[in-house]
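Thread title: Can someone regenerate the structure for this chain?

I was given the following input by a collaborator and told the matching structure tokens would be attached. They weren't. Posting the sequence so someone can regenerate them.
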Amino acid sequence: MGPFGSVCANKRELDLSLPSQPPAPRLSVVHGDEEGSIALRIRWGEHRSEPPTIYYRIRLLQPGSSEVRHLSAQAGEPYHDVQKGLPKYVRYQAIVVPVNVNGAGPASEASEVLHFHPRELEDRTAAVSVPRNKRWTTK
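Best answer:
Regenerated them for you:
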């Protein structure tokens, strides 16, 4: 017994494993938070590991260039939207790295290349204006 009552006698096995390799992410262009803006959506597939993945480190690459942006996103969300600071009309690719309490796991394969352009919007119906009804009818 400890000074404050009973002591927990449960033993825990120490699990020092790192997360497994996640599937390649998918990129898409979606409407941004501000009117008329677009965002780059990075979506990762189902990924389970024990101990659980806490967050993802994201490497956003520009193919044919040495430029790399580093981002992080919570693992509980199925995607991460990059709203600001990303130049339009550029091609991007993403790699995700899962991180748990023990550290970073292996990086995913690179996503397919996506052109970050308004014409690549995932929800095209919202981008097209709805025709107005006439105020009068003809007989």
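The first strand starts at residue 26 and ends at 31.
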